[in-house]
Amino acid sequence: MTTRPPGDAPLTDPADEVDLPWVSVRPDSGTSKALLIKASPLLAIGALRVGLLMARGRGTSAGSGMTGLVIGILAVLFPLLWVCALIGLRWANAGIRLEDGVLTVRDRWNRRVLHTPVSSLTGLHTVRVPVDGPHGSRIVITSTAHRPVLIDARLWDAEGLRELWKHLRLPFQDHGFLKWPLLKKRFPGIPTPWRHVHHVLSTLLIALGGIAYIALIVNLPFLL
């Protein structure tokens, strides 16, 4: 959470600043970073084992030497680098900002998923969705000028969100656990992650992609 720098403050009376607060909420990547740090030793060992296996071969399968070692290590590191890139993009681009009476929410691709005057906001709604488990919750922001937006509070700075809710002065309404069809019915137009709504199909596609990726990596040294 940040506040307006003194040099950027507009030339208005102090009373106007009370009516038009400025709050910026930054992404919180602490959970993702903690998991990566804890998993880094296992990932390093796994990358080395895969590289050595591809270099030496196994059984009747001939190894591919140094090429296999390098490709095997990179095969494990590439998905990790992809995850780190997504975390970096979110930290660089995503944000929630309340400025000059307008609330703006940006995603990791720097797209504005919400940009509406505070006067058009109608409420804040806490819900639990199927992917959150028994203790997770998300917040839906509704307005008369924009479709509802789903916020995962765990991915944002907690102090900044508390400051934001305080300045918005909107009532919270708890809807409890909602499955995706009921969530869409209760909040028409709300965007939902495709991979979460169609989790069976998305899991199947991920599994097929993983098999294709492994097959490509195993045969890549012999294709070069």
What does this protein structure show overall?
This protein is an alpha+beta fold and 224 residues long. The chain is 49% helix and 21% strand. The protein has seven helices and ten strands. It has helices at 14-19, 30-56, 65-93, 158-168, 180-186, 194-197, 199-223; strands at residues 23-25, 57-58, 61-62, 95-99, 102-106, 112-117, 121-128, 138-143, 149-151, 172-177. A four-stranded antiparallel sheet has the order 1-4-5-6. Helix 2 (30-56) runs antiparallel to helix 3 and helix 3 (65-93) packs antiparallel against helix 7 (199-223). The longest helix is centred in the middle third of the chain and has 29 residues, at 65-93. 12% of the residues are buried.
Number of helices: 7
Beta strand count: 10
Largest sheet: 4 strands, antiparallel
- Rg over CA atoms, rounded to whole Å, is 23 Å
Structural class: alpha+beta
Strand numbers in spatial order across the main sheet: 1-4-5-6
The percentage of residues in β strands lies in 15-25%
Summed over residues and divided by their number, the pLDDT gives a mean of 84
End-to-end distance: 50 Å
Order of helices and strands: HEHEEHEEEEEEHEHHH
Give the proportion of residues in helices.
40-55%
Morphology: elongated
Poorly predicted segments: 2-18
